[in-house]
Amino acid sequence: MSIPRPTKIAIAVGGVVAAPLVAAVVLASYDWNQARPWLNERISAAIARPFDIRGAVSLAWRNEGELLPMPHLVARDVHVGNPRGMQAPDELASVGQFAFAVELLPLLRQRIEIPELRFDNPKLLLQREADGKNNWTFKSEDKASVWSLDVQRVVFTKGTVRYIDAMTHVDASAQVDTIKDPRYGVSWQLRGKWNNQDIQGSGKAGAVLSLQKQTAPFPLAASLNVGGTSISFDGTLTKPAALTALDMRLKLSGPSMARLYGLTGVLLPETPPFVTEGHLTGNLGANASHWIYDQFTGKVGASDIAGKLDFKTGAPRSLLSGNIQSRLLQVSDLGPLIGADSNASKEARGAEELQPGNKVLPVETFRTDRWTAIDANVNFKAARITRNKDLPIQNLETQIHLKDGVLALKPMNFDIAGGRFTSNIVLDGSGKVNAHAIRADLKAKAAHLQLRQLFPSIDGMQATVGEINADVALTSTGNSVASLLGASNGEFKGVVNQGSVSKLLLEAMGLNLGSVVMTKLVGDKQVKLNCMVTDFAVSNGVMNSRLFVADTSEARIDVHGTVNLGNEKLDLTLKPDAKSVRVISLRAPIYVRGTFKQPDISVDKGAMALRAGSALALAVVAPVAAIVPLVSTSTGETAGCQALIAQAGKPQH
């Protein structure tokens, strides 16, 4: 008997409608606890790690905006282990109640599709070992499983998360709880250790993490304190499945930028306390990450900074590049770069080595062990640098290059007092030349520095037309400014012409030593300086004067001796020779001894006594002749300034 076509259609439609109902009845009546071994085996194969449902399993039908009701499995006491090969003994996660909806048809294609995964009271332990292996990357090791897992979104509830990282030395735990907030779904409190520093803070995150809709933003906000460095951010994660596309507003502050190395792996210099805020975007790739800190502004000490930094991880080293500008840079804020700040400043930024009370040159060692961790190519410009309102330094420009542990400032130039200071500095901290020290090479030149602009507030200097020119070339090996200068080799040459000197001028320069010497020579008054020529040879940290002459309108002063940069000791003899007949001119040598910290200036008492004794003897014979030994009869026939410059070898400028 044939069945009419309309009847066939009706039966087919009825079958389609009845099938889900029949399936629902069958699934609802099934004891799902018997399916635990099957579920454990299939999910374990799909995620390539142990999966174990130890508690009861039940099923419910829910309609959450779908056309048809969807089966929801609820499993209690669920445990997820670590991937094979990890040494970590603890499992990845345990969940008090684990609920997920399952699409039925994909099961026929050996796909487990979960539109929503819900965790109640989870305990999550994320671990990364020293070799980089972690337990949160889900992928098969030997061969692809015939079963696949597709999770579309994850819902968080109250629980705990612990993160242990052997690479970055982190062990921190967060307590997570649900909150009622239009933007965020959970909040958390964090405590632990990061590189042996205490870390604590709090934050908020979204309750639903979409793993399918990669454009859906997942909100994040936090405020952290790590060893005195404060970090706060507010933004989104827009590709959570791959942990990429971070976009946030970031604010940092702390005692020194160098303290950020332990947190970020980015090598930054020692600085005074700083604060900076800008726009951070990042992509965390499987083999490399890329971060951009853009449009940032801030303060370092009393100096302002702004610019853009770009950081890329990769082999053989990460690369930091960018541009930084400063409108006003305080000289005191540069001190920490070379350890030249005060002991109070050192303690505030956590320096391990304080400056001894009897030393002037900075003894704080450079952290060269970090130099090989990163390469850098950063441009830095400062419109104005000031020690006080009268120090006219402008337009500093430098290119900071760091590659394979070799730091180069090529060039480092700035305008000063109407002239220009130019230099190239190379510091080899790679350890290839010396495993425990830096190989340094300095070449610097000062050209056409105008005396009246260098000291604009000094009385009588505005009429001065003199200038300074100098050349410096030094090489050395050491691990601090003090040890580098104490072992340096090279030369220093300089010329000052057509100026004027006085006790008042030298005091304003901060040269108390020079003040005492000049007072002894000419009294407290302005004296015309025709020229001053210096030529020092530097050998193993000892500056030996090949030529050091100051030619004034009243005298020529020859200086001989050494300046020891290693032990900071002075051994100089100044011999004045008056140019005109002057009564009561003793012409006794002046000795400069002692240390940089405590110089000692004295007059040759023997020479003075000899001249005074001769005068007394003559007085017995002829009173008029008694003044002869006290009269200077030099005619001033000294070599002219051009001859002195030629003798020293005129610096190139």
UniProtKB/TrEMBL annotation:
<dbReference type="GO" id="GO:0090313">
    <property type="term" value="P:regulation of protein targeting to membrane"/>
</dbReference>
<dbReference type="InterPro" id="IPR007844">
    <property type="entry name" value="AsmA"/>
</dbReference>
<feature type="domain" description="AsmA">
    <location>
        <begin position="169"/>
        <end position="546"/>
    </location>
</feature>
<dbReference type="GO" id="GO:0005886">
    <property type="term" value="C:plasma membrane"/>
</dbReference>
<dbReference type="Pfam" id="PF05170">
    <property type="entry name" value="AsmA"/>
</dbReference>
<dbReference type="InterPro" id="IPR052894">
    <property type="entry name" value="AsmA-related"/>
</dbReference>
<protein>
    <submittedName>
        <fullName>AsmA family protein</fullName>
    </submittedName>
</protein>
